[in-house]
Design brief:
Length: 458
């Protein structure tokens, strides 16, 4: 087995982290795909210059903390065979599931988040180009017609602080777009195929609609939290929502057509988004060949809050406070006071000292940290149950700093995974950084990334 080539700047020189340090971590830069015939050594640091962020349907919708496609692509092809079943139990926007399909594996996605499930379904469901193109033109025509008809009053859903999030003219435009999408289904504008195929096109339209909502709101477009920052002086102009939607619909129709063509010509297997959660997948014993996932960070991305505007418009957000929605998420911050009244200890040496330090400053954050890792322990047990003997579980996890305490998640999860209560073998782990090739980032800031744990069921 070969080793990863040490290059990727124009000079062919290796780049090194922490220059001048006694323990220098040599960083191997990789331009695009990670060579499948290469063996990444234990403890290695790689830096992938991703070029496939918007390849086919990958770019249909923004999603915080997304996998860049090259990493799951490498892990899928490295640790499974063509025709294998690949699961992502916390699938997010569906990057792993889509890459499983493109690698001729059967992809399964599970996620507690309804937005994640919808995105994954749409990204991995091929659509007939004829009905899709006709529906696109029908919807665009209806949007333009209703915009010109000043007597038309679209349905605008009510939700908390709606008039703070959106200008009145944007609310009307978004209402018109949503009306046109729903009218397309009711008026049988989605021609051809059966009811399932028409529903799939309808879901595609909803995701494209969702993709422009944050951008035309008053909220900061680049923040993982949904917040209005007055100092940004965000400009939202009349006609902006309609024009952005029409542009996105045309662009994503082309992307979906390319994906569907690849599915047809390549004979790619279908993917599936299952009901269930990361800790209760509903899958049978030894049902999968490989699992690949990137769990949420502790206290990092609040997914329901991040997507609350989109979920309100799509009808995915239940009535009631956000805290009720978030309580069952792994990594949740929504906990009861009685749960963190006393210091919780896990029995894991990599975790408990940190829990004590955090508890002295913030008992609530200490419990949130404890609960995350106990949830992950339960998730590891579930994955071990459904994984075939000899199968691998590849987990990408980043570190956190909580109340000034550095949480070395890779050490903690490694200890949990190999414990008697779980039973994985840790084959190796390596660090994966990321550069988006179209963003100019100072080199000293490029090493943010995740540790990849390669676990095996013996």
């Amino acid at each position: 087995m070969g080793t990863i080539p040490s290059l990727i700047d124009d000079t062919g020189k290796q780049s090194a982290g922490r220059r001048g340090s006694r323990n220098v971590n040599v960083v191997t830069e990789i331009n695009g795909d990670i060579p499948i015939d290469s063996d990444i050594p234990d403890g290695a640091h790689i830096l992938v210059i991703s070029k496939d962020q918007t390849y086919l349907t990958h770019g249909i919708h923004k999603f915080p903390a997304k996998f860049f496609p090259e990493l799951p692509r490498y892990l899928i092809q490295k640790y499974s065979q063509v025709g294998a079943t690949v699961l992502d139990p916390m699938c997010g926007s569906g990057t792993t599931v889509l890459e499983a399909m493109l690698s001729r594996r059967f992809g399964i996605g599970i996620d507690i988040d309804p937005m994640a499930r919808l995105l994954t379904k749409v990204k991995t469901t091929a659509l007939d180009s004829g009905p899709l193109e006709r529906t696109k033109l029908w919807v665009i025509e209806r949007v333009r017609g209703m915009l010109e008809d000043h007597s038309h009053e679209p349905h605008v859903p009510g939700f908390p602080y709606r008039d703070c999030w959106f200008e009145p003219f944007i609310l009307r435009e978004l209402g018109i777009i949503r009306d046109a999408i729903d009218m397309a289904a009711r008026a049988r504008a989605i021609e051809g195929g059966n009811s399932e195929e028409r529903e799939n096109i309808h879901d595609f339209l909803k995701v494209v609609f969702s993709s422009i909502i944050r951008e035309v709101s008053n909220a900061d477009s680049h923040c993982t939290r949904t917040v209005v920052r007055k100092r940004l002086h965000k400009e939202v102009a009349e006609g902006m929502a309609a024009s952005r939607f029409i542009s996105a619909l045309s662009r994503q129709t082309d992307a979906m057509t390319a994906f569907s063509r690849a599915c047809q010509t390549g004979g790619l297997p279908a993917a599936k988004v299952c009901e269930g959660t990361a800790t209760k997948t509903g899958l049978g014993d030894e049902a999968i060949d490989l699992a690949v996932t990137s769990p949420p960070y502790i206290n990092a991305v609040d997914y329901p809050r991040t997507h609350q505007l989109e979920m309100y418009w799509l009808g995915l957000m239940k009535a009631g406070p956000l805290s009720d929605v978030k309580r069952n998420y792994i990594g949740t911050e929504t906990v009861y006071k009685e749960e963190y009244a006393d210091l919780r200890q896990s029995g894991f040496v990599a975790l408990d000292p940190s829990l004590k330090k955090i508890h002295k400053v913030d008992p609530r954050r200490s419990y949130i940290t404890y609960k995350f890792f106990m949830d992950m322990k339960e998730q590891f047990c579930e994955t071990l149950r459904i994984l075939k003997p000899g199968g691998h579980y590849c987990v990408a996890i980043g570190n956190n700093t909580i109340r000034g305490v550095n949480i070395r998640s890779q050490d903690i999860l490694s200890e949990i995974a190999v414990s008697d209560d779980v039973g994985f073998t840790l084959e190796k782990r390596f660090f994966s950084g990321l550069i988006r090739h179209f963003i100019h980032i100072p080199r000293k800031e490029r090493m943010s990334g995740e540790w990849i744990l390669i676990l095996k069921k013996e």
